[in-house]
Amino acid sequence: MADDDTAHTNGNGHEENGLVPEIELIIKASTIDGRRKGACLFCQEYFMDLYLLAELKTISLKVTTVDMQKPPPDFRSNFDANPPPILIDNGMAVLENEKIERHIMKNIPGGYNLFVQDKEVATLIENLYSKLKLMLLKKDDVSINSLLSHLRKINSHLEKKNTRFLTGDTMCCFDCELMPRLQHIRVAGKYFMDFQMPTDLRYLWRYMLHMYQLDAFTQSCPADQDIVNHYKQQQNVKMKKHEELETPTFTTSIPVELDLQDE
C-alpha cells in the first residue's frame, strides 16, 4: 500500500496534535502504475467529503492507495476481501459504501453538515453514471441524447438555483458525488466517442469551473489516463505498453470560448 502524500497536508498545513481524530481512507490505486489515485468514483467521493472536513480542521486525514491487482498479503484477511473504499476510524474499519457514508454523517466531527437533505437534487443526479456507461456501450444517438438530456436538467437546476454548488454556496455530499461523475463523462466520453459537453450548458460549465478551483477536487482527482483505463478494463481492451510510461495529465480547464472567470 502507498500513502498519498497530498492528503497529509489536508490543504491547510494541519499537523497531528491529538486534538482531532485521524481518519484513514484506503482507496483503489491506479491500474496503470499501482501507486497513484485510481479512477474509483466512490473512492473520490469519500476522499472529497473527508478532505473538506480536514480543511475545516475537524479531522486529520490520511489517504492510502492499494493496488487491487497485487494487494498486500494481509489486506484481504484484514478487510474480509472487501475492496476499497475503506474508512478506518480509531482502529475500526468501516466497509461498504452505505456504511461509510453513514459513518461520516453520524460519527465524524463536522460530517453531519455535509449530508444535507434535498430530494430534488438527489433525484436530479441519480442515474447519471448509468447513462454514461450505456452511451459507452451502445454508442448510438439514443444513448447520447439521453445523457445530454440529463446534463441539461442539471444545467437548468443550476441556472434556477444560481449558486456556486448544487444546494447553495457551500459544498455538500451531492457535489462530492456529482463532480467525479462529470469528470468521467468529460474524459471518457471524449476519448471513446469524441463526446463533448455542449458549451451552451453555461451553468454546468460554471459549476465545473468552481470545482476545478477547489483543492478537495484537484487533490482527489485521478489522472485522465486512469479514467480512460478504467473503462478499457470494463471493455476488456488491453492497455498498450507506452501508456504505462505516459506522464499523467489532468483535464481541469474549460472551453476557451466560455468566459466565466467573473461569474
TrEMBL record:
Main location: membrane
Keyword Membrane carried by entry: yes
Domain CLIC N-terminal: 21-104
The entry's keywords: Membrane, Transmembrane, Transmembrane helix
Membrane topology category: Single-pass membrane protein
GO MF: chloride channel activity
Cellular compartment(s): Membrane
Keyword Cell membrane attached: no
Protein family (similarity comment): Belongs to the chloride channel CLIC family.
Protein name: Chloride intracellular channel exc-4 isoform X2
